[in-house]
Amino acid sequence: MKDNEIFEKICKGDEKALEYLYKKYYRMMTKMVISNSGSEQEAKDIYQEALVVFWQKAVSGKLVLTSKISTYIYSICQNLWRKELDRKRR
To answer: Which one, out of 17, 27, 37, 79, has a CA that is 20 to 30 A from the CA of 43?
Structure first.
């Protein structure tokens, strides 16, 4: 499936499209967290949280996708992981 097809399905609330995204980008997203001092469990948690954020924005109609879905989700993961690292340091 192409990004625009997946995005349209997610905007309509199609959970199978979200599951497809989860499986498609799982390795890439979790690798980013693990390679930045995170555990595998933390990586899973961050990725799931990022997908929830993506889902909520897409379903609300407030998300205008100007990049690939993977780029958008990756940036969400990065931001969530940075916040988590900051929280751990305190």
So the answer is: 17
